[in-house]
TrEMBL record:
Listed transmembrane segments: none
GO molecular function: tRNA methyltransferase activity
Species in which this protein is naturally found: Natrinema halophilum
The name this protein goes by in its record: Class I SAM-dependent methyltransferase family protein
SUPFAM superfamilies: S-adenosyl-L-methionine-dependent methyltransferases
Domain SAM-dependent methyltransferase TRM5/TYW2-type: 82-329
Coiled coil (residue ranges): none
Length: 329
C-alpha cells in the first residue's frame, strides 16, 4: 500500500526520525524502509511535516505494514475504544476494572502514549468542560498537533474535540491572507491558529478565561501572536467593538449558535462568510439553521448558502452539520 513518506539521506535519517517522532507524525502502522541510500519514513500528516522539516522530500511509496507492533487489543480479549490526543489516550468506561485494564493495555502497547484519561462526566456548564479520571500520567495538560499546528491545552479546564480536525482543516483551507476572521467561541484556537498561519488577522473570543490564556500561548507557539487578538468575554458584548469588521466568522457552538446570530450580523462586513454549526434531526439537518440565519440577516444582507456539509453523526438520527453562508450587504 502506498503511503506518504519522508525521503531523507540515510546519514541524516536518525536526526530526521527524532524530529518527526517529537512532532508525533510518524505513522507507526508501517515500517521505515531503506533503499539505495535513502531512508523512507512513513508519516501521518504531510502538512505537519512541512512545518517541522526544512529538508526532506515527501513522496508516496509502497511500504510494508508493521507486523511486530503491539496494540492494546493484543493485551486484551477485545478491541478497546479510545481516542488519541497528542500523547494522551482518552477512553469512556463506566466499569473501573475495565477502564484500568484498557489503560494498562494501552501503556503496554507500542502506542506513543504517556497519559490515559477516562471520561468521568458529560460536557457541562457554560465553558463546556468535563471531569476526567487520570489513570496514567502526571496531569490533564497535553500538547496536540494537527495539520502543522501545535496546541497546548488542559482537558480539565477547556473544551477540545480531536474529532473535528478534518473539519477545521476544511474551513482553514478557504482562508486567504489579509482576511479579517472572528471565531466567536474560539477555545484554545483550533480555528484561529490555522487561519492566522494562512495570513489572516484574527480575533478569538471565549467566555472561558483559561481557554483564552491557552489561545494566547498557542499563538506564540505557532509564531502568529502578531495576527491574533484573544478576548475573554461574551461575544455579544464584544461584537459592537468590531462592528462590520469580519470577512469570515466561525460559529462552532452547535446547540445554541442561533442565539448569537444577531451578534454575527453586527460583526459581519460587507461581504462575509459565516461557518455556522448546528445539530439537527437527519430528516432536515440544514433547514432550521438556514431559516434562522435568513431571519437574522435579511434584508440587510443577501444570504446565499455556499455549502451544506455534514460533519459527523452526533446521536441516533441527529447530525452535526455546517452551513457555509455568504452574507453580502
Amino acid at each position: 500500500m502506498e503511503v506518504p513518506c519522508v525521503r531523507v539521506a540515510r546519514e541524516n535519517g536518525e536526526a530526521t526520525r527524532t524530529t518527526l517522532a517529537d512532532a508525533d507524525v510518524i505513522d507507526d502502522d508501517y515500517e521505515i524502509t531503506v533503499e539505495d541510500g535513502w531512508l523512507y519514513i512513513p508519516v501521518t500528516d504531510p502538512d505537519a511535516v512541512r512545518e517541522v522539516l526544512e529538508d526532506g522530500d515527501i513522496v508516496s511509496r509502497a511500504v510494508d505494514e508493521r507486523t511486530t507492533q503491539t496494540t492494546p487489543a493484543d493485551r486484551l480479549a477485545f478491541e478497546p475504544s479510545y481516542e488519541r490526543l497528542g500523547r494522551a489516550a482518552l477512553i469512556d468506561e463506566d466499569d473501573p476494572e475495565r477502564a484500568r485494564a484498557i489503560a494498562d493495555a494501552i501503556l503496554e502497547s507500542d502506542l506513543p502514549v504517556e497519559t490515559v484519561l477516562n471520561k468521568a462526566s458529560k460536557v457541562k456548564g457554560e465553558t463546556r468542560v468535563r471531569d476526567w479520571e487520570l489513570l496514567a500520567g502526571e496531569d490533564t495538560e497535553i500538547v496536540h498537533r494537527e495539520y502543522g499546528c501545535e496546541f497546548a491545552l488542559d482537558l480539565a479546564a477547556v473544551y477540545f474535540s480531536p474529532r473535528l480536525a478534518t473539519e477545521r482543516h476544511r474551513v482553514a483551507e478557504q482562508v486567504a491572507a489579509g482576511e479579517h476572521a472572528v471565531d466567536m467561541f474560539a477555545g484554545v484556537g483550533p480555528f484561529v491558529i490555522p487561519f492566522a498561519k494562512r495570513g489572516a488577522e484574527c480575533v478569538g473570543v471565549d467566555i472561558n478565561p483559561e481557554a483564552i490564556e491557552y489561545l494566547r500561548e498557542n499563538a506564540r507557539r505557532n509564531g502568529v501572536a502578531d495576527r491574533v487578538t484573544a478576548i475573554n468575554g461574551d461575544v455579544t458584548d464584544v461584537a459592537t467593538e468590531y462592528r462590520g469588521w469580519a470577512d469570515r466568522l466561525v460559529m462552532n457552538l452547535p446547540h445554541s449558535a442561533d442565539e448569537f446570530l444577531e451578534s454575527a450580523v453586527t460583526l459581519a462586513g460587507d461581504d462575509c462568510v459565516v461557518h455556522y454549526y448546528d445539530i439537527q434531526h437527519e430528516d432536515d439537518p440544514f433547514g432550521p439553521g438556514e431559516h434562522e440565519i435568513r431571519a437574522a440577516a435579511e434584508p440587510e444582507y443577501d444570504v446565499s448558502v455556499e455549502t451544506r456539509h455534514t460533519v459527523r453523526s452526533y446521536a441516533p438520527h441527529e447530525l452535526n452539520v455546517c452551513l457555509d453562508v455568504r452574507l453580502e450587504r
